[in-house]
Amino acid sequence: MAPPQYRGAINNGFELSISIGILIANILNYCVVKITAGWGWRISLSMAAVPALFLTIGAIFLPETPSFIIQRDGNTDKARALLQKLRGTTSVHNELDDLVSASNLSRATRYPFRNIFKRKYRPQLAMVLLIPFFNQLTGINVINFYAPVMFRTIGLKESASLLSSVVTRLCATFANIVAMMVVDRFGRRKLFLVGGIQMILSQVAVGAILAAKFKDYGLMDKEYAYLVLTTMCVFVAGFAWSWGPLTFLVPTEICPLEIRSAGQSIVVAVVFLMTFVISQTFLAVLCHIKSGTFFVFAAWICVMTLLIYMFLPETKKLPMEQMEQVWRSHWFWKRIVGEVEDKEEEKEQQAGKIALPS
User: Fold this and answer.
1) What global pTM score does this model have?
2) Which residue, 76, 87, 297, 307, could crosslink 139 as a Cys pair with Cβ 3.0–4.6 Å?
3) Residue 166 Rama label (left phi>0; alpha psi -120 to 50; beta)
4) Sequence-distant (≥ 6) Cβ neighbours of residue 226 within 8 angstroms
5) Taking Cα atoms as reference points, which of 324, 351, 350 lies closest to residue 338?
6) What's the CA gap between 323 and 327, in Å, rounded?
7) What is the CA radius of gyration of the chain?
8) Could you count the other beta carbons within 10 Å of the beta carbon of residue 276?
9) Contacts for 212 with CB less than 8 Å, ≥ 6 apart
């Protein structure tokens, strides 16, 4: 639905909404922590019904997308009217033609989960697997899940620990807003790379501070505890304006319509799987290697930043129906995609020769 020139900013609204929700939850936890008789956690848990109610009501008024209308009904007139309404202009003929072409190709694809494993979709498959995989190996959900525990461990009191979680989430929310403002100007690759470097430095700094100043009996001088908090804020901000929103934006952009549903499903599945793994293993790993945990996260971020630099082309402002062009011109992926296209052309030429009358 979003026009190509604003697609990044609009799509990043998803991550901003998540960040605002986490911020509200953290503020609520801080406010109810002192409520006695066991009502604090009950209030905190029950308030999750409020956003669920908003989602349910909002879904009633949510319109279909032009591509879905074309794919489901083949009603190009209805799709054109909706597209004109969304774009604010009647000059939508070229975009509508692209949508119809993509829909025709998608209809011919009966098994998107099977087709995404084809050689011509190898770049998309690699990205929808690797981007969400590395997203969780940044250690972001360690902050989301265990920030109060970590801050209490390094010497902050319970209320201060919960307040620290609010501070880190505020930084993330502001960084999400920055991402919405710059993603369509500077592009996806630059945000990936700069955010990756920012997170590497932050994780190394946290690991170094803990290694040097965290005492054996489980306390840290208050000034160093606040330095860890500040560094965590820098890390969260780096994630929130790069890997956070782009993990969902880029796979959506690079997958053509015929495999987009499969690609997005894989992204979500990998995110949830890795979230489970990280949440179940972090505390045990932290107890065994302590500050080394953050150096491990930094090493993973180095690997993923290098992979983005080498294998992900820029996709900003490019219509989604024309996204296959970026793979044909990429130094690595053109060897895979180009070979497939050459073979298909040879088959068509041979079929044409066979069809000629004698």
Assistant:
1) 0.81
2) 297
3) alpha
4) none
5) 324
6) 8
7) 24
8) 12
9) none
* Residue 221 CA from chain centroid, whole number: 36
* CB-based contact 314:189 (threshold 8 Å): yes
For 200-237, how does the pLDDT look when each residue is reduced to its tens digit (9 = 90+)?
999 999 999 988 887 655 667 788 888 988 999 999 99
> What gap in Å lies between CA 106 and CA 112, rounded to an integer?
9
What is the three-state SS of 174-219? Answer: HHHHHHHHHHHHHCHHHHHHHHHHHHHHHHHHHHHHHHHHCCCCCC
Using 50, 70 and 90 to split pLDDT, how confident is the model at 256? confident
Q: Which two tokens stand for residue 183?
A: 């993603």
Please give the structure tokens belonging to residue 217: 């009996």
- Dihedral sign for Cα 86, 89, 90, 93, please: negative
DSSP 90: S
Burial 242-252, CB ≥16 within 10 A → b, else e:
bbbbbbbbbbb
pLDDT of res. 195: 96
Question: Measured between alpha carbons, how far is 253 from 250 in angstroms, rounded to an integer?
Answer: 5
pLDDT by residue (tens digit) across 100-123? 877 776 666 667 788 899 888 999
CB 48 within 8 Å of CB 289: no
**What number of other Cβ atoms are within 10 A of residue 89's Cβ?**
9
